[in-house]
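Predict the 3D structure for this chain.
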Amino acid sequence: AVSDAARRLAADVLRPSFPALPWPADRLLRLVTVGLLPPTLRDAYELRWSHDDQAALSRWSWRFRLFARHAPVALRCWRAARRR
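Done. Predicted structure below.
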């Protein structure tokens, strides 16, 4: 179960009171963070999610996949993930 305190914390994480990132980056971060949650969790946290949000996430996902196909390993993989 998601408590009111958890909902407040989620709101603070998704929309901090100080401008941490410029608007486009902030919007993209929220889009990916909320969009990757299962719908049941989005509903439990009372996070808004629309068809427009889903379409935007799909467009960005396509761009990320295209970038990943063409980017060098040093850009597309975290350094720690490349260690074996």
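The longest helix spans residues 51-70.
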